[in-house]
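Budget justification aside, the reviewers requested a transparent look at the raw inputs and outputs of the sequence design task funded under Objective 1. We therefore reproduce one unedited record. The lines immediately below are the structure tokens for a 736-residue chain.
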């Protein structure tokens, strides 16, 4: 039972995600038949699956969605922005319920109250079902005969949200051409039909065979709107209404639930669609049937199952045990036998186990690094010794194996950026509607992979950038038209791998950022003196958007204006060892680039020395290292600068930043004639950092500061080098 419920949770999440994407596609193109079918299929499957677990509010809501989508499929209703809003609200509510089911195993206590207004809105304000009942107190909604249904009749009806039909034909109906039984043959999804005398029957000798003395009561799984056409010739003799029928008091066994779910899979195979859709449905049904049968301990003949899943009837025969195996293939000689390709299987692993594996791999990398000095010592002791050669060979083999192991473990943690991109179409759609703007979202590179920790970190910054582009970047339609642009703006999000890391770009074709406006805003907010603001280059003026508390918004709204979004973006990215770049052209748009490492589990650092101590600087922040003649360093009081790559760059000394003694002339490898300078690429621009010396580059496991050291500022953590030496890894932004 628990395994089936867990499977429902997983499948419901997938269905809701697919439904959201299909609804976005349908809103963009109301004639997209494939999107209508996919959306209907998701609601229909959710209805059937939720009814198995006696979740009447859930079933009620998705049934209402299925009804309106059925009208869309038949062309009796058209897609409108208002209808899309209602369907989105229904999907959001279902997602909240699935989250509650996943965490607590039950719907919230207010589920019925939440479902009712949403279901009514979907049905256009029509009659809503009566309040739900329990197994002994059904929501009969004016159909008291439902309370007398037997357990067998309840099982036949299936429970959940149904349409009750109460039809008392005119006694002379045969003379007017009405056939009551023929009418019920036209009722869609007829679950139950009861025929009782409408009044006490006369003795057989007095019975008039030309008069109808019967009353027909029925239950249908279709909505009242779908049932009504069957009785359009006798509207005065029939009464219909939606009701919620609880399942029998005796809980169904896991086997009966499983069989019901299996029957639903056969129905899914019969749904309409193109060849690609049918192939996708068939693959999903194969996985589901195999999983359910395995959960019940039933052996599955995979070959027979694949042969049976051509359509719903084939699967039903298979489940009933009526599928012929067919002739066995001729045996192939063992020497020439070729094993069939193994089917790809997904293995779910808890994140904690993956983290533990990566920690062990990282520790192994550090230990492997300690072997290098031993190899050198052995070589120094006896250059021609056999032991030295064997140790060197062993070290090379171990280095290869550890590298392969680290790569394999890292691959296990890699996930596509589609996981981060998935919420964006809905966010852009809702936000653009609120702002009265037309926006086309273009997503590229969703298949690009990154470590799961990078994806977890990326979500919030990406959200800020998208909101900022929608609120500040893309103009209102009338302004775009006046500027000769299409009325709908374009927001493009592109991801790709570059230099061992991941790059995510967010660009728009909006009004761009005016450097002059940035300078004025900085002066008005007291961030810069007028002279300093005027001296800023356009590129430096653009980077003011990352300053804490900076905003050019005229007022504060729930989207922007508080001056915390872009600063939070930069802080989050740089904490992850990445950097942020911005470029903009007035009238043409803005592009923000996030450059991130591929993983946070292992950090690559440049080892530097200051006052005899070793420190690490993340490689992602290092733009270059060079020796600069001290005569090329310009000083104004205690401020220093140097020209690097044809730019004047501020220079700071690491000793001074760390509160260590100043270097005396003649100290260090450069002697009195040169300084060793590391060019740090930060969000505000490059900064030259003078150090005593620069050493190796090393892959290290970064350990956060703990205990009394937790409050130290300017340090990202500690790490151990391959030779066992401990270093402090610097947080340059915090220091500067």
């Amino acid at each position: 039972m628990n395994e089936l419920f867990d499977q429902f949770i997983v499948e419901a999440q997938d269905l809701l995600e697919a439904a959201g994407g299909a609804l976005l596609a349908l809103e963009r193109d109301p004639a997209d038949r494939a999107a209508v079918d996919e959306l209907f299929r998701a609601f229909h499957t959710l209805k059937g699956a939720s009814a198995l677990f006696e979740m009447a509010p859930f079933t009620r809501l998705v049934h209402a969605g299925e009804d309106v989508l059925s009208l869309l499929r038949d062309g009796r209703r058209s897609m409108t922005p208002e209808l899309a809003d209602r369907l989105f609200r229904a999907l959001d509510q279902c997602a909240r319920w699935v989250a509650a089911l996943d965490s607590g195993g039950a719907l919230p206590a207010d589920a019925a109250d939440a479902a009712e207004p949403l279901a009514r809105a979907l049905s256009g304000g029509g009659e809503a079902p009566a309040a739900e009942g329990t197994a002994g107190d059904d929501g009969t909604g004016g159909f008291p005969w439902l309370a007398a249904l037997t357990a067998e009749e309840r099982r036949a009806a299936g429970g959940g949200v149904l349409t009750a039909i109460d039809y008392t034909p005119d006694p002379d109906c045969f003379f007017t051409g009405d056939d009551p039984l023929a009418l019920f043959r036209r009722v869609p999804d007829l679950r139950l039909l009861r025929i009782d005398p409408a009044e006490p029957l006369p003795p057989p000798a007095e019975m008039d065979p030309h008069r109808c003395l019967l009353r027909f009561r029925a239950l249908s799984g279709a909505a009242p709107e779908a049932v009504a056409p069957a009785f359009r010739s006798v509207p005065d003799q029939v009464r219909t209404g939606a009701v919620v029928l609880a399942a029998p008091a005796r809980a169904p066994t896991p086997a009966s639930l499983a069989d019901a779910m299996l029957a639903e899979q056969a129905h899914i195979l019969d749904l309409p669609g193109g060849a690609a859709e049918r192939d996708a449905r068939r693959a999903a049904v194969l996985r589901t049937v195999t999983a359910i049968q395995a959960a019940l301990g039933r052996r599955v003949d995979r070959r027979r199952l694949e042969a049976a899943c051509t359509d719903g009837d084939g699967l039903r025969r298979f489940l009933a045990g009526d599928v012929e195996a067919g002739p066995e293939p001729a045996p192939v000689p063992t020497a020439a036998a070729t094993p069939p390709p193994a089917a790809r299987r997904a293995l779910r692993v808890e994140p904690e186990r993956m983290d533990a594996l990566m920690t062990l791999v990282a520790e192994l990398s550090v230990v492997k690094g300690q072997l290098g000095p031993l190899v050198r010592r052995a070589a120094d002791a006896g250059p021609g010794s056999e032991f030295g050669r064997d140790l060197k060979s062993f070290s090379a083999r171990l280095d290869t194996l550890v590298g392969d192991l680290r790569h394999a473990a890292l691959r296990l943690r890699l996930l596509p950026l589609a996981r981060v991109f998935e919420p964006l179409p809905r966010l852009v759609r809702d936000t653009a509607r609120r702002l009265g703007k037309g926006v086309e979202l273009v997503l590229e590179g969703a298949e690009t992979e990154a470590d799961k920790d990078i994806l977890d970190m990326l979500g919030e910054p990406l959200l800020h950038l998208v909101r900022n582009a929608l609120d500040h970047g893309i103009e209102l339609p009338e302004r775009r038209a006046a500027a000769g642009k299409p009325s709908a703006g374009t927001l493009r999000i592109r991801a790709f791998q570059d230099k061992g890391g991941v790059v995510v770009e967010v660009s728009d074709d909006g009004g761009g950022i005016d450097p002059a406006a940035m300078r004025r805003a900085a002066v008005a907010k007291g961030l810069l003196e007028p002279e300093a603001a005027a001296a800023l280059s356009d590129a430096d003026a653009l980077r003011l958007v990352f300053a804490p508390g900076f905003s050019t918004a005229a007022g504060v709204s729930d989207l922007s204006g508080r001056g915390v979004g872009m600063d939070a973006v930069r802080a989050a990215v740089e904490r992850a060892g990445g950097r942020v770049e911005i470029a903009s052209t007035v009238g043409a748009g803005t592009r923000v680039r996030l450059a991130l490492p591929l993983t946070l589990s292992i950090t690559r650092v440049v080892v530097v020395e200051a006052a005899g101590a070793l420190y690490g600087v993340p490689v992602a922040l290092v733009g270059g290292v060079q020796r600069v003649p001290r005569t090329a360093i310009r000083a104004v009081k205690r401020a220093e600068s140097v020209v690097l790559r044809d730019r004047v760059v501020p220079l700071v000394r690491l000793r001074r930043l760390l509160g260590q003694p100043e270097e005396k002339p003649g100290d260090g490898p450069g002697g009195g004639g040169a300084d060793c300078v590391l060019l740090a690429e930060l969000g505000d621009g490059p900064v030259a950092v003078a150090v005593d010396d620069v050493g190796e580059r090393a892959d290290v496991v970064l350990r956060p500061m703990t205990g009394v050291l937790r409050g130290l500022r300017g340090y990202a953590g500690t790490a151990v080098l391959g030779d066992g030496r401990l270093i402090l890894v610097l947080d340059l932004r915090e220091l500067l």
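DSSP finds 25 helices and 22 strands in the chain. The CA atoms of residues 214 and 662 lie 106 Å apart. Computational costs for records of this kind are itemized in the attached budget.
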